[in-house]
Structures are given as structure tokens and as C-alpha cells.
Amino acid sequence: MRSIEHIYIDGQFVTPHGTESFDLHNPATGEVIGQVRLADEEDARAAIAAAKRAFPAFSQTNTEERIAILHRLRDAMAAHRNDLLEAVVEEYGAPASRAAFMVDHPINVFSEAADLLGEYPFVRRMGAAEVKMEPLGVAGLITPWNSNAGFICGKLATAIAAGSTAVIKPSEMSAIQTQIVTEALHAAGLPAGVFNIITGRGEVVGREISTHPDIAKISFTGSTAVGKSILRAAADTMKRVTLELGGKSPTLILDDADLTQAISLAVNAAFMNSGQACIAGTRLLAPFSRLAEIEALATAAVEQVKAGDPRDPATQVGPMVSRKQWERVQSYIRQGIEEGAALLAGGAGKPEGTTGWFVRPTLFTGVRNDMAIAREEIFGPVLSIIPYQDEEEAIAIANDTVYGLQAYVLSGDRDRARSVADRIVAGRVLINTLAHEPKAPFGGFKQSGIGREYGPFGLEAFLEPKSLLGV
Ligand code: NAD
User: Fold this and answer.
1) Which of 4, 100, 166, 243 is buried most deeply by CB count within 10 Å?
2) Is the CB of residue 223 below 6 angstroms from any atom belonging to ligand 1?
3) How far apart are the C-alpha atoms of 263 and 381, rounded to whole Å?
4) Cα 235–chain centre separation
5) How does strand 217-221 pair with strand 240-244?
6) pLDDT for 25-37, tens place per residue?
7) Model confidence pLDDT, tens digit, residues 250-298
């Protein structure tokens, strides 16, 4: 049984003022594996004050100094890789292939930020003016549970690259992973207060960060509902806000696609991270002319997806993170059936032989885009086939959503796929690939968010331009 008793403020592990104890679970068994003592508003204020004290000196560091710091952070995370890997499997239930990404990504983000810093022009001439990009102040970084270390480190790497100090509020459900990340980052030996990590409830610590006048910027990843409340809360003090929110990404299979490849990619896009991914391709748009083939291939593929023990190397889909999340996914599966969608694979209940919060990988067909399973983010391994007549209709269905985070276009003709991709309203469109490009901006159109992360766009979200004339 793990007991996490400390938060990290001003370069030290300290006992929180908050006293609430929160149970931590192994989602593969449903068992309680530990407790975390949660921070409260007073802890949040102490962390913000520490970050504010650290800001004047840190914001004056030069690029070389910050590159060296980012390399130290990368090395420190790499030294804790094995501990983090174990925690990612135990506390989150990530299957092996996903778990490896979840521990390598938070290492790599520091090198990527260092590389970017080496080439980013902080000072530019624009006409008669010299334009200087300056760090905007203390950043509040609020992160979800579905890639805990990745979001903490990705946001922190960018804040550090910009010369900002940070207060980080991770999900309360990821406290064991956060403890390991905090120990790693502490070992990098940064000046006290540059980053502070306080695990607490969203409506307590997250709320304090979103309203506090000494927070200049919020970078939030999480649900669209919470993102909206953060945006409202931030308005009074005019905080700069980056929001990475939900998605309902379409996978458009065009009628010329090689279906064997396309279905394999589409199923991976849908079930990545056990379906708990904002970028999951959960709406599979299939041409009527090839619907029967697509249904047969997709059914076979989904039936083969192994959901179960994350420690079994054959497992592709691990458990849902919590009972609440499991119940939410179950209720969407029931709703899909009630609304008249046809079940091709999976369904309600747990896969045979499992006791934890496992969902049966589920495939629906005959889904209309106005059904709840096509409109709302399920955040579990549930894929819906939506038939379309022609390319125009496919594009219209793809764009008929309040979200706009990601889309996938699968076709045998690159030019045709490209012209379809150009018409999709989404922050990222992947053509015949599931690749990630860390230099490119990541984020959503419409209610998938505001702003972008990664690369120069991500860095600029932590900077303010200042024009100097007469110089
Ligand atoms: P969530 O919105 O409930 O919580 C995210 C974080 O916000 C947590 O740390 C939580 O404690 C905190 N929070 C909750 N209420 C708050 C409040 N009132 N003020 C401030 N902070 C508050 O989301 P979740 O359930 O942890 O994560 C799942 C959601 O995240 C999904 O909707 C998913 O699409 C989204 N997500 C988006 C991306 C992306 O990059 N676009 C990536 C991963 C997850």
C-alpha cells in the first residue's frame, strides 16, 4: 500500500495543508493500492507565491542556460524510466506498447524543447521596431490522467523554454506516477520555485490556479466542460489560456483505399490508449459501395483486439482508469443499442475472465451522425461505423461535430486524400498514417480547444511580444 504524503513547493517536498485522503486504485483489479493526501487552496497559494518569487531571476536566464536545464530534466526523467513504467502499468493500466510511449514521451519532450530553443528567434526586427518575445509570468499547468507524465513534462518543458515558472496540478488519480515524476524533476536541481507540483482536486486546487491574480497563463488539457469553466474563470484577470480538450475524430475511408491496411489503421486509431485518447478516431466513415467489406474486416479486427491484463504482452486494450469511467463507457454502449445502432462486436459488460474496469472492444455499424455515440466523446474502446454516399457527404459528416482536434483520411490516392484533408476542419489530419510530429503544432479547432502546443506555436503561447522603437 502506497502512501503519498507530500507535495512539492519551492524546491522541497512538504506536507500539504490539505488533509483530505484520496484512494488510488489498480484499475486492472479495482483494488485500492494506496492513498494520496491532497493539497488545498492554501497549498495552491503557497505554490503560486514560490513560482512568483522565482520568476524574476528565471525569466532573465539566457537560452544556453535554459537549454542546459532542459537537458538536465531529460536526463533526470530518463534515470527514473523503469520506476515510471511500473507505475504507468499499475496505476493506469497501460498495456506494454502504450506504457513504453508513456515513459519515453516525457523524456523526449525535454530534448525537443531544447532543440526548439536553440533555433527560436526571441528578437526580430519588424520595420523600425525591435520585437522581443518575453516570458509572460507564472504559468498554471493543469493536466489529466490519460498520459500523466507526458502532459506534466510537455507543458513544463515549454514553460521552462519560454523562461516562465510553473505551478502544476496533475490529476488526483495519477498520484503515484506524479510522485515519481516529481522525484525525477527534483533530482535535476533547478532553482527553488521554478516548478511546483501540487496534487489536489480540480474544483479546489485547479480552481484556485484558474482564478489567482498571480497566474498569468493557464495551459490545460482535459475535458471540454472543465476547459470552458477555466476560460470563464480566467477572464477576470485576463489570463492567457491554452486549452487542449476533447475530440470526436473522424476516420474517412475513401472508396479507393486498400481496406486491409485501412481497417488495421482505423482500429488502432480508435483503440489507442485503450480508447482513452482525445485524438481517438471514433467515427469510421465508410462508403456505402464498400460497406459490407468494411464491416466484415472491421468486425474480424475488433474481435481480435485483446482486452485484459496490461502485463500480458498480447494485450492491446487495458482497463478504464476508474469505475466512473467504466460506467460512463457502459452507458454509451447501452445508449448506442437503444438508439438503433447495430452491434458487430463487443457490447456491454466485461471481457471474460477480467475483474477490473475492462470494457469489451466494441464496434457499431449503421450509426447516424446525430446519435449520441457519434456526437459525444466516449473515451473508451467503442468504434462507430457511419456510412456515407459520396466524398461530399463524407466531408460534411466529418465536419458535423462541435469538435475539431484530429482526423484520419485513408485512400489509395495521395492527391485525392490531400484534397479531402484540406477540407477537414481539424487541428491535425493524418493521411494513411498514425505518425506524430513533435515539431508541428498540436491542438484543436472549435470546441476541441484554444491555441496550440509543441513547436514554435506552442512556445509562443508562453510568450508575449514587446515592440521597442527608437532602438
Ligand atoms: P477533466 O477535465 O475532468 O480533468 C482534467 C484536469 O482538470 C484534472 O487535473 C482535474 O482535476 C482538473 N479540473 C477538474 N475540474 C476543474 C476545475 N473546475 N478547475 C480547474 N481544474 C479542474 O478531464 P479528465 O477526465 O481528467 O480527462 C479526460 C478528458 O481530457 C477527455 O475529455 C479528453 O478528451 C481530454 N483530453 C484532451 C487532450 C488534448 O490534448 N486535447 C488530451 C488528453 C485528454
Assistant:
1) 166
2) yes
3) 15
4) 24
5) parallel
6) 999 999 999 999 9
7) 999 999 999 999 999 999 999 999 999 999 999 999 999 999 999 999 9
Provide the domain limits for residue 204: 2-245+446-469
CA of 221 to the centre of ligand 1 (A): 5
Do 203 and 331 lie in one domain? The reply is no
CA distance 222 to 146: 9
Q: Assess whether 240 and 257 both reside in one domain.
A: no
Q: How many domains does the chain have?
A: 2
**CB 140 near ligand 1, within 6 Å:** no
CA 218 – ligand 1 centroid, Å: 13
For residue 219, what pLDDT band results from cuts at 50, 70 and 90?
very high
Q: Is 327 tagged catalytic?
A: no
Distance 223 CA to ligand 1 centre (A): 4
In sequence order, the 6+-apart residues with CB closer than 8 A to the CB of 36 are: 4, 21, 22, 24, 172, 175, 199
pLDDT of 97 strictly over 90: no
pLDDT in tens, 392-429: 999 999 999 999 999 999 999 999 999 999 999 999 99
CATH of the domain at 206: 3.40.605.10
Query: Is 359 inside any structural domain?
Result: yes
Residue 104: strand pairing partners: none
Residue 324 pLDDT greater than 90, yes or no? yes
CATH number, domain containing residue 368: 3.40.309.10
The reply to whether 42 belongs to the active site is no
**Is 16 in contact with 37 (CB distance < 8 Å)?**
yes
On whether both 355 and 389 belong to a single domain, the answer is yes
